[in-house]
Amino acid sequence: MSSASEYAVGQRWLSNTESELGLGAIVNQDFRSVEVFYPATGESRKYTKKDAPLTRLTFEIGDTIKSQDGWSLVVTETEVSQNVLIYHGNRTDSDERERLPETMLDHHIRLNQPEQRLFSMQHDIPKWFDLRLKAFTHMSDYQRSNIIGLAGARIELIPHQLHIASQVGGRHAPRVLLADEVGLGKTIEAALILHQQIKTARAERVLIVVPDSLVHQWLVEMLRRVNLAFAIFDESRCEAMDEGGENPFEQEQLVLCSLDFLRDNQKRHEQALAAGWDLLVVDEAHHLVWSADAPSADYQCVEALAEAIPGVLLLTATPDQLGHESHFARLRLLDPAKFHDYQTFLDEESQYSELAEAVTPLIGDEDLSDAQIDRIRALAPHSASNFDNLDDFDNRDALLHELIDRHGTGRLLFRNRRAGISGFPERHLQAHPLPLPELYEDMLELTDDLDEALYPERQPSLVNSWTDLDPRVEWLLEFLPTVKPEKVLLICASAVTAQQLGEAIRLRTGIRHSVFHEGMSIVERDKAAHFFADSEEGAQILLCSEIGSEGRNFQFAHHLVLFDLPLTPDLLEQRIGRLDRIGQTKDIQIHVPYLQDSAQSVLVKWYNEGLGAFTQTCPTGTGVYEQVKDNLTECLLVPQDNDNISDLVEQTRHINQQLRQQLDAGRDRLLELNASGVGKVEDLLDEIIAQDANDSLPDFMNWLLDAIGVNQEDKGNDCFILRPGESMVNSLPGLDPEGMTVTYRRRVATTLEHVHYLSWDHPLVHNAVDMILTDTIGKASLGFITDRTLPKGAYWLEALFTLTVNAPRELQASRFLPATPIKLCIDAQGEQSDIIFEKTRRANKKIAQQLIGALKKPVNNQIDKARELATAQAEALLEEAKTDMNTSLSGEIARLRELQQDNPAIRDSEIDFIEAQMSALRDAFEDAEVQLDALRIVVNNP
């Protein structure tokens, strides 16, 4: 590109003073003036020839230029016809030979090279140079961080959740079962894993499959927790997308759908299988019933997906709910080669139990006997740790964590028990015995149906009148005012019961209420839950059918009314788990109104006195129920047989005690220690806490948002309202045109649901940075400083280079070498300077043009010197990145190969990927480039 003094109609020129006009064309000229039309804006300007602020736009051989019709060519030669340039070259889309007169150049052409912009007077405010430098620096630090995808989630910092997420999220194609007990945050763990996998380019396409009742809950949680916007797929959406003839599942990267939808529609199931996902997530996996002879349709549906998709996350709070064989079947989904035979699995499990028992003294910080050491050596023969000096804490800790790594299912299965996690509230039972109505009593004497015995209100003859005679209804209406304005969650077995209770409240009181059941649409359910969550104008009570016990979290409420009781202990625990979760701030009051001398009273007694299931979690409940269910059924149908009921309670208590002793005997201690992260997660927590306390993000974003024209209003309580300003040239993706409230503080974000939590992970932050770094703004500037300690008229060239490596995203090259800024300052003598310019003011256009004209040759020399120095620095940075990559990946390969000797859960494909990644990164690093990104001339004018 060069300038010229001879004007001709059709030539293309740039305005030095109004760069926003775009590329202009000369439409008229005479001996004194020249008229330029700017098609991009539809404006014209007339200039006096001798001082026209114009620069001729010309391109050199090798440049890529774009036509008005949208195609581009690479210039191979030029010719001049009647003072108008004609470019010849090959089109980039077809490689065909083409000619492009400058009259047909794209009006919106922008100069990208800093030298071009500097010498053509396409200058920006000097502060933009600093902003580009800070943006590159912050993003480079971010890409190297160990806490990408973890620190930016809207969550409390719960150690076991972060530990599991960091362990699983850093793997290639992880295949694990997340089996924490109810209330420990499996959905949050899955969200963190997904977020980390996507942010680090380990995964791009994700399919989440959940029960129909949880679809919208997952949609909201993924968006609210980690800003991942999933598309809900159902039949109506797929039909609308079928018209194009393409697979609808290929049209979105992040898809959420129900298991019923895929199971019952073979076409959609086949389309989902063919869509090519990186990661599959399946919630409520305990519903996947399996036996060797008759796997359920649900199981087969998921099994086909799990075979086709490299990464799989299965979630269940109750891994043994359908029996140990079904637990084996879920592990079989993760690794069918290892878990191919149930009996083999049982044999291996017994060996892991022996290992866990042998290391129990290590967990309890006790001495190991010689027999225990010999047993550990026999069970883990490849252990490299030193057994000779186990008095040393570090040696004991190293041995323990090495054995955890080698534990059979420890790499596949993560299970935390509430007994090992602190921070839970107390649970208090408030039992409310009520008289049995005569009508119920007469009916119950004649029934041998268990459902009728437990739920007499379902009798067809009473369907429209039971709320008038059932004392539980009267109790509820009297109870609600006594705890007002506190929130009350009521769960019952039937949607009809929930609706009829809602109608009774509406007709007989003025209490605000909301109903939540499976007959409602997803949107209707979400509205009901939101109305209940509203602390000021919302419902005091939410009336849920059994669907309310799965997935939804209502820990802002402290009163739970169990209007009836489920027959299985796991379902009771799920109900209580809606309130009894991490994040609950008060003790939970569990209210159980029940009819005396009925099956209901027997069930209350069995749960309370036999299992203690109301006041504490009951991980053994299913095992007990399987052994006593026949006797329990008999007692429920004959509630007057007090002797039999007493025997049932005593039998239950005895079996429960035995199972708890087995559970606590150390069988899964290694597994639980592995899942808790004790001794391994502390450094990660410290790093996140340090980042939370650092003000670099709010300081940077305040500057950045101000620069791009976003209005920021301090709302107090560490909250800010962001609104598009009138000066914004481009829209900022993710910024609500009506404004949005944001915070940079975790404590605020986890308290105020409507406030957006801005972090280095947040899309708005990345979009704002991209607006700077993908634009030409700040690439060239000229400014003045006022410093009496420096010579007047002295000038410096600041050059910003970036060291970049081009590699496919899945190689995660940015872990070791992100776009790295190299900033240099060269003085007028061509020497490197360490001077830092903090306040640089913009130069007058006319003065700037004169300076550029006078300094063009020496500045070109300074650019060459800066490029030479930047290349030398880049070589050192590149060697450092290579060493870091080789050390990190080769160490991981060696660790996995060693563990694989004892633990076949280490897949060959995982090691193969890292080896291929390492090889590809070595090649990519050889092609790393140093590119000039921005230039700034600074002149001292005291």
Number of strands: 31
How are the strands of the largest sheet arranged? 12-13-11-14-15-10-16
- Judged by helices, strands and strand pairing, the structural class is alpha/beta
What is the CATH class name of the largest domain? Alpha Beta
Task: Tell me the count of domains.
Answer: 6
Amino-to-carboxy terminus distance: 34 Å
How much is the average pLDDT? 86
CATH topology term of the largest domain: Rossmann fold
Q: What percent of residues adopt helix (DSSP H or I)?
A: 40-55%
- Rg estimate, integer Å: 35 Å
Shape: elongated
CATH superfamily of the largest domain: Tandem AAA-ATPase domain
Beta-strand share of residues? 15-25%
Instruction: Compute the number of helices.
Output: 31
Question: Which spans have pLDDT < 50 for at least 5 consecutive residues?
Answer: none
Outline the biggest β-sheet. 7 strands, parallel
The CATH architecture of the largest domain is: 3-Layer(aba) Sandwich
